Amino acid sequence: MTSAPSSADFKREMLAQLPALRAFAVSLCGRADLADDLVQDTILNAWKARQSFIADTNMRAWLFRILRNCFYSLLRKSSREVEDEDEKLALQLSVQPSQHASIAMTEFRSALDALPSDQREAIVLVGASGFSYEEAAEICGCATGTLKSRVHRARARLRELMELPEGEADEPVGSSV
Q: Is domain 7-78 given the CATH code 1.10.1740.10 in the classification?
């Protein structure tokens, strides 16, 4: 069994086949941009597998087979892909990507932590815990009007910190106020 050629010889032989590879790729896919991508994938795959190439065998045939396999892999992948240029299909997903909610929650948590403690306490009691203003005021040991004022200031500050338009943070989650 003959060993693999040296890296320099392999590279020289491989690069000599580029014009023929590109012509074959164009004939397979009919698009120059896609053909260039196929040739690039072919060269990368061939370089990774250079140890399996046997010296004094047909480099051209070996590279053409790799290119053909890359093309068929691309066809298989593209048959499973759906074009959604206007994102109508993505908007119909029953579950939206979780990273958006995670980012929003991180931003909200940072904004909440930036509030003064009395405002944070008021908004958490009324908004997140679902207490009425009266119940929350009793828990905080202050007048109902004072608690309402703290919640109002907390909402305004959250809107400001999160750069939300007017009205988007007015109703806390779980609140019936």
A: yes
pLDDT tens series, the chain, 177 aa: 456 677 888 899 999 999 999 999 998 888 899 999 999 999 999 999 989 888 888 999 999 999 999 999 988 887 777 777 777 777 776 666 667 778 888 888 888 889 998 998 899 889 888 889 998 898 888 999 999 999 999 999 999 988 888 765 544 444 444
Domains 7-78 and 111-177 share a fold: no
CB 157 within 8 A of CB 119: yes
pTM, entire model: 0.47
Task: For tokens 């939206």, name the residue.
Answer: 96
Distance (Å, whole) CA 28 – CA 22: 10
Provide CATH code, domain 111-177.
1.10.10.10
